[in-house]
Design a protein that fits this description.
The protein is built from 4 helices and no strands. With 185 residues, the chain is mostly helical. The relative contact order is 0.11.
């Protein structure tokens, strides 16, 4: 075998090895980025799920206290002390869950979370008597809460890349409920 043939063979092996190494490195980097993206998507989902959970806890407490204050007919009433305590406890958890959503999610989701949280605060203030309200004001605030909740759900779906529109309510209030169904949260 001549020296020229040996050099060509050696050069082919070196180039082949370099191309193989570069391909494997790029493939591994792509897989790493994809896995990292999945992890952050899961973190965003978990943060949004926690916010939804805490909001439902707080609104449930506010609804029970609002029943006590005759703002609505709904869940079993609670003592004023118990209702205020439940709202205060859930409000601390709400602050943490909200901040996590603000940190991890996109701007649209963060804004939807801010609006939704504001509607929850209004319901809680009505229920605790911090802001005086009657049953019509409660119902209007509860409708705003539900609209904001649906907007948050839509923003989360978009942020997480979930296809489709999801469930959207088109009308709100007692008249929109099917017969036999009580108040909804």
């Amino acid at each position: 075998m001549s020296l020229g043939t040996q050099l060509v063979t050696l050069l082919s092996v070196v180039i082949g090895g370099a191309v193989s190494f570069l391909g494997a490195t790029l493939s591994e980097r792509s897989r790493w980025k994809r896995d990292l993206g999945r992890q952050w998507t899961q973190h965003r989902f978990d943060a949004c799920r926690e916010l939804i959970h805490v909001v439902h806890v707080q609104v449930g407490a506010a609804r029970s206290l609002a029943t006590t204050r005759n703002l609505l007919e709904g869940p079993p009433p609670v003592s004023a002390e118990e209702g205020v305590r439940e709202i205060a406890d859930s409000d601390r958890r709400l602050a943490l869950a909200y901040e996590t959503v603000q940190m991890l999610c996109d701007e649209r989701t963060g804004e939807a979370a801010r609006v939704w949280r504001s509607t929850v605060w209004q319901l809680s203030d009505y229920a605790r008597g911090v802001i005086e309200a009657d049953s019509q004001q409660w119902e209007a605030a509860y409708t705003r809460y539900r609209v904001a909740r649906d907007a948050f759900h839509g923003a989360v779906r978009q942020d997480l890349g979930i296809p489709g529109r999801g469930y959207e309510r088109h009308t709100f209030g007692p008249s929109s409920r099917p017969p036999g169904f009580g108040p909804t949260t």
